[in-house]
Amino acid sequence: MLSLQLAHRLENRHVLLIGAGDVAVTRIPKLLPTGCKLTIISPSFHNKIRETFPPEWSNNIPLGQTITNANWDSQLQQAYRVVNDTYKQEYFSLESAWSLILVCISDHAVSRQIYEDAISRYGCGQMINVADVPPLCNFYFGANATLAQGKLQVLVSTNGLSPRFSAILRDDIEQRYNEQDGQLDLAIEKLGQLRSRVRTIACNPQDVAFRMNWVKVITDRFGLPYCHTMDVDKLTHLFTQMYRDATLQTDTPVILTDNDFPTRDQILQDYSQ
Q1: What pLDDT is attached to residue 59?
Q2: CA distance 183 to 194
Q3: Cα-Cα-Cα-Cα dihedral sign, residues 206, 211, 212, 214
Q4: What CATH number has the domain bearing residue 226?
Q5: Which of 86, 118, 139 is where one domain is finished?
Q6: How many whole angstroms separate alpha carbon 246 and alpha carbon 138?
């Protein structure tokens, strides 16, 4: 069965990570750049995880102590809270809700207990990932390829069957497109500008289908090799003309067909920089 791949926005949202060993080390670089408020529960901490602690924290946090980062900021990429202890159900109460719960310990029996406690407390809708136990995961991490100065993210997932193969394919994607990174960055920047401008021009609810179709056709005309050459000003002018023509007879603009647009050759010749 296929999984639904979604991009989760986690800035300022609480995420719980139980365990701070080798597996947790692979999770941290994916979590902290999202700006989430990460709480880590563990009786010991991998040195790489300690690097995410604020400098003022002692390397020897007393057992059973909970420390919150008073100066935490989503841009710092630091842990929000650390609990130096083994898992206890009471620690779920540190927050009223958790966007994600990650269990990264080697004891499968304890992992299952944590899973059952979480589902009992929050219901089956709680997002939880138990490392190395796919049946106890309702989401997977996959391997993330990051391109275009972070503007483009590609998720490769085998739905938990082979994380290593996902990583190999991720590395291949990054290598293939590494030389085009500057072009991809510029293409995404221009497409974002164009979408913002046409949304301002066609801002009514009834304009959504027309606007989305127009952007789709124009993007397809340029295609992956040429989107970075777009002249946003000229394309904005083209959209304004086509939108006015489409709304002359009715308040709801008609959906244009492919033949209503300039050909690909015309687009590349007249609307590129």
Answers
A1: 67
A2: 16
A3: positive
A4: 1.10.3280.10
A5: 139
A6: 45
Is residue 25 domain-shared with residue 130, that is, in the same domain?
yes
| pLDDT tens readout for residues 63-121 | 899 999 999 999 999 999 999 999 999 999 999 999 999 999 999 999 999 999 999 99
| CA angle at 18 for the pair 89 and 63, rounded to the nearest 5° | 75
Last residue of some domain: 139, 156, 190? 139
Cα 104 to chain centroid distance, Å, stands at: 21
User: Tokens 């397809």, residue?
Assistant: 220
- Tell me, yes or no, whether 33 lies in a domain: yes
Domain count across the chain: 2
Structure tokens at 105: 């310990």
Contact 118, 128 (CB under 8 A): yes
Domain containing residue 188: 181-270
Q: Do the beta carbons of residue 271 and residue 226 sit within 8 Å?
A: no
> Which of 184, 273, 263 has its CA nearest to residue 221?
263
- Find the catalytic residue in 85, 132, 185, 220: 132
- Residues 20 and 96 placed together within one structural domain of the fold: yes
| Tens digits of residue pLDDT in 201-214 | 999 999 999 999 99
d(CA 168, CA 176): 12
Is 132 one of the catalytic residues?
yes
Which amino acid makes up residue 229? T
